[in-house]
Amino acid sequence: MHGLVIKNTGSWYQVKTDDGQFVECKIKGNFRLKGIRSTNPVAVGDRVQIILNQEGTAFINEIEDRKNYIVRRSSNLSKQSHILAANLDQCMLVATVNYPETSTIFIDRFLASAEAYRVPVKLVFNKVDAYNEDELRYLDALINLYTHIGYPCFKVSAKNGDGVDEIKKALEGQITLFAGHSGVGKSTLINAILPGIETKTGEISSYHNKGMHTTTFSEMFPVDGNGYIIDTPGVKGFGTFDMEEEEIGHYFPEIFKISADCKYNNCTHRHEPGCAVRKAVEEHLISESRYTSYLNMLEDKEEGKYRAAY
Ligand SMILES: Nc1nc2c(ncn2[C@@H]2O[C@H](COP(=O)(O)OP(=O)(O)OP(=O)(O)O)[C@@H](O)[C@H]2O)c(=O)[nH]1
Ligand SMILES: [Zn+2]
């Protein structure tokens, strides 16, 4: 029998089978996945094969190949990582231009990590009800920039409901991870999409605070139109993604595209002669803010301390 892992409590996994049953499952034996040293071999979003037993529970005995997955390092000391979710169709990054401001560096780092993880991102700009004329103009400039690069953008007010229907539409049939730094209104937005979920996430957080080993806890919530949303408490964004210096440019689509015209094919687009990227920045074909974010990631890498800012 096949199904989708929709909840992970550490020792048990809840699987929704393809014929619509919910089955509590355990892992059989010792799962070792190729190339991943993970504290949890199975994550929400995994498609699995299960074998039912007489008590009505089941064993997971096979995990289907993942199209992508996101991880978090367990700690700096250990090389082990924790798989937060698998098979994401998309990620929605909630951002704000004020109250508090999401920096373009934060947005761009997030986008680059998502490119590396091969998860498409949609940008959701929240709190549009609160902005003045200047902020709204800046917002439109950002939306113009990111839409052009290929990231769809939404304007919403989780507070008064503006734009929330468009978000609901974009969630249909998709597994979507929500991310965003503290205070952008992620919880308020999720609650506008799924009234009642708020209490649940609250419970999870307080459980967290007791210092119990709940880092393995994650859950997907069904939304209208056969989709799911994942809101992992405490996850502001993606974890560290180890990128080689010359690789960082690959995760800025517009930089990558133009870099084909650089004189040197290992160009880092800083001081090299014949750099097509720097020329494009000067000619305003690549945005200054994106180039700054790119350099910012490169600098961290140089100092040997690259760590995502979330
Ligand atoms: N004006 C305005 N305020 C909002 C909106 N959405 C959320 N807020 C407010 O922003 C603050 C933060 O909202 P939360 O939903 O708690 O933000 P969060 O992103 O979940 O933050 P954490 O819980 O810290 O992760 C609250 O005071 C909300 O009432 C909005 O659309 N407009
Ligand atoms: Zn270059």
UniProtKB/TrEMBL annotation:
Alphabetical list of Pfam families matching this protein: RsgA_GTPase (PF03193), RsgA_N (PF16745)
E.C. no: 3.6.1.-
Sites where the protein binds Zn(2+): C262, C267, H269, C275
Keyword Metal-binding among record annotations: yes
Keyword Cell division among UniProt keywords: no
Coiled coil ranges: none
Cellular location(s): Cytoplasm
Alphabetical UniProt keywords: Cytoplasm, GTP-binding, Hydrolase, Metal-binding, Nucleotide-binding, Ribosome biogenesis, RNA-binding, rRNA-binding, Zinc
One Gene Ontology cellular component annotation held by this UniProt entry: cytoplasm
Domain CP-type G: from-to ranges: 77-238
Cofactor(s) needed for function: Zn(2+)
InterPro entries, A to Z: G_CP_dom, NA-bd_OB-fold, P-loop_NTPase, Ribosome_biogen_GTPase_RsgA, RsgA_GTPase_dom, RsgA_N
Positions bound to GTP: N126, K127, V128, D129, G180, H181, S182, G183, V184, G185, K186, S187, T188
Start and end residues of each EngC GTPase domain: 86-236
CC cofactor note: Binds 1 zinc ion per subunit.
SUPFAM superfamilies: Nucleic acid-binding proteins, P-loop containing nucleoside triphosphate hydrolases
MF (Gene Ontology): GTP binding; GTPase activity; metal ion binding; rRNA binding
GO biological process, one term: ribosomal small subunit biogenesis
Entry function: One of several proteins that assist in the late maturation steps of the functional core of the 30S ribosomal subunit. Helps release RbfA from mature subunits. May play a role in the assembly of ribosomal proteins into the subunit. Circularly permuted GTPase that catalyzes slow GTP hydrolysis, GTPase activity is stimulated by the 30S ribosomal subunit.
Known partners and oligomeric status: Monomer. Associates with 30S ribosomal subunit, binds 16S rRNA.
Family note: Belongs to the TRAFAC class YlqF/YawG GTPase family. RsgA subfamily.
Protein name: Small ribosomal subunit biogenesis GTPase RsgA
Organism: Bacteroides faecium
Gene: rsgA
